[in-house]
Amino acid sequence: MSISHAPPPPTPDISGTAPHESAASGSGSTPDLVALVPSSARRARVPRWLRRTTGPVLLLALWQLLSATGTLSPDTLAPPGTIARVAGDLVEDGSLTSAMGVSLQRVAIGLLLGAAVGTGLALVSGLFRIGEDLVDASVQMLRTVPFVGLIPLFIIWFGIGETPKIAIITLGVSFPLYLNVYAGIRGVDAQLIEAGESLGLSRWGLVRHVILPGALPGAMTGLRYSLGIAWLALVFAEQINADAGIGFLMVQARDFLRTDVIVVCLIVYAFLGLLADFVVRTLERLLLQWRPTFTGR
Predict the structure, then answer these.
(1) What's the pLDDT at 44?
(2) Contact 183/211 with Cβ under 8 angstroms?
(3) Between helices 259-287 and 246-255, what is the axis angle to 10°?
(4) What is the pTM for the complete model shown?
(5) How many helices (H) and strands (E) in the chain?
(6) Those residues with Cβ within 8 angstroms of residue 229's Cβ, 6 or more apart along the chain or in another chain
(7) How large is the C-alpha radius of gyration of the chain?
(8) Mind listing the pLDDT tens digit for each residue in 243-282?
(9) What are φ and ψ of residue 202, in 5° steps?
(10) How far is Cα 233 from Cα 252, in angstroms, rounded to an integer?
(11) Greatest pairwise CA separation for the chain in angstroms
(12) How many CB atoms neighbour CB 292 within 10 A?
């Protein structure tokens, strides 16, 4: 009886290529390379300025719609067209531009004084333990006192001129800067201090090259907070015994029930605050180029 032997199974190709691919590779052709593109890059890019203006434009459209349908009474809030016309009239007669100049001068002086006071106290308290013992407790107590509640006391002390208005802005600005600069100084990594000491840096060298750059992000954050509080303090300060400024226009408009003028003044406040925040953010990007951060996706 004859025994038939089955043919051996084909040897598997362990190269991972099909026979036709092997032939192709043997002929010297190179396979095409496909570039990998992230899914985020394949999405349609909308300009950022367009995305940032979408919210205000939608809000303005809703405001116009409510005014056109009569849902929002003109006595309660004037329509956007009326607001634009009144703003043009105030700019044409010069009352709005002069009021903006007075208000900007008050904010600038109060911001400079408050920045000097807040930053100086933060440096004394953050760099020296004895400074912290002498300064920090007093500042923390004063910080809990509402600065708006000090307006009557400031009027008694300084009268009804420009001094109490600037003092209120200075007081409101100094506390956010103090807290953020102090936290930035005390938040510097101790290993960086040790590395600076091992490199032979003096105390002033450590402060200049290690501590102050490390505290700069906190100082920028405190400056942004301080600018917002500066405009808030200006609103309160110009409501009391003011004879010029945007707040003075608002008081006059309140007496004559001119809601359109009040809205124009509020828009000016918001625009000036947004402009100041843009300046600080630009300054922050310039000063903190060495510090890469997450910017969102």
Answers:
(1) 54
(2) no
(3) 160
(4) 0.72
(5) 13, 0
(6) 172, 173, 176
(7) 32
(8) 788 888 888 888 888 888 888 888 888 888 888 888 888 8
(9) -75, 180
(10) 19
(11) 129
(12) 7
